[in-house]
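Dear all,

This email documents one entry for the complex benchmark we are building for the journal club exercise. For each entry we list the sequence lines for every component of the assembly. Then comes the predicted three-dimensional structure of the complex as a token string, followed by one or two observations. Please use this as the template for your own entries, and keep the labels exactly as they appear.
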Amino acid sequence: MPAASRNLWLHPAAKPLLFVLCALPLAWLVVGVFTQTLGANPAEHLIRSLGDWTLRGLWLTLAITPLRSVFKQPALLRFRRMLGVWSFAYASIHLLAYALFDKGLDFDEILRDIGKRPFILMGFTAWLLMLPLAATSFNRAIKALGAKRWQALHKLVYAISVIALLHFIWMRAGKHNFAEPTVYGVILAGLLGWRVLKRWRGSA
Amino acid sequence: MHLIHRPDEADSAVTPRAVYESRRKLLQAAALAPLASLLPAHAAPAKLAGVRSTVPGALVMEQPTPYADVTSYNNFYEFGTDKSEPAQYAGTLRTSPWQVSVEGEIGKPGVYDLDALLKLAPIEERIYRLRCVEGWSMVIPWEGWSLANLIKKVEPNSRAKFVEFTTLADPKQMPGVRANVLDWPYVEGLRIDEAMHPLTLLTFGLYGEVLPKQNGAPVRVVVPWKYGFKSAKSIVKIRFVEKQPVSSWTKAAQQEYGFYSNVNPNVDHPRWSQATERRIGEGGSFGGLFAKRRPTLMFNGYEAQVGQLYAGMDLKKNY
């Protein structure tokens, strides 16, 4: 039922529904904090889950373009910005949770930590690079920049996703635990590889 | 409901678990009890009570970490890399019959049944700090006896410079062993004088009962002044050797995990600052979410007891 599914993307409730879906993991964690069901180390659970959801959000954002093309669903484009902004929200809360629960908001200590531990530096860099994208996610910003420049700027998301993955790999390397980073890596390779392939075919 | 209702506690001569735990934690445990009873790893723990130890430093005067946290937040890669996985999957471990082979550079090698080990020396209760290399810590009441008791009995010769511990690695009982995370079996080692130190505990229980499977049943070693991974679990072999053993984590990442791995707030791990630690289960509201991290103590607070073992050693080089 391609016609029906196309209509579904354009349904007026589609965007609010996606908004709620994106908020659910965060809501679930907040409920976990209040019901104390996040296990023996709630700070670690919070920080890691928020990081996981940042990656998932980023990967979903990057999946929109291939999905549109492969399944011929151009209407999916209307969800991309919301996914991107939610990814930034999760990244920011992830950073905040680390700063608050791991570092007690001691900013000197946080700066030292960024300098000392490469995987923290990676994560912080990825978040910094997300800032200009989040700041230009409004219609007025797109108009002010012009579509071309806006698009060029937002290509940063490729670098962000790779740095975010490195952050994850590096974190897990401490305990030789690469199963999950491998899954994320394979999916990202697919998402970015698809673009390279398309470009290469397009110019050939 | 075994987590809270223990009628035998009233007769127990040693400190019952209920005394350790605050009322709030008990209520929490009660809420989780129906869930916990579904887990095979929690099935009816048998009592194993020791007499309070008189070894200097053996009884830390700090609030023990709640039993529920001690038995649900574990690094035991043989049952999975997530800290909740050992409690979920360790139920398949068969702890009886269990034998430990004691071999190598000793006069009296042999294979010990668990029962024989249990009777080898009087079981003592020791309340130790446990500091994980990942930056968290617990306080755990263990039941066991000083490993020195066994070492003296088996008569090490002059070539016995180190003691090597090997953990069971049976993929049928331990799902994590099917993954290639580490080079199985798990091997850890101590210098012979470290192994002989009275604080080094051959451990059979915690909180007055036999070790839960996820905590390294039926027999493990606990070396309280070293990072947790030095304390090998579910031991099947204790070997006395001349050359320094290569432990599993050293093999996996030599720059990160040294042979000594003494708790040391001044030597950071490349991935974790070791200056402070999060005490699991501590600090009031929201499960301790907002609790301040504690400063980590040199040799995990056992410097008075073990410092002389490392006199003159460069602890930055010998990390």
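Observations: Chain B has one domain: 46-310. The first strand of chain B starts at residue 51 and ends at 52.
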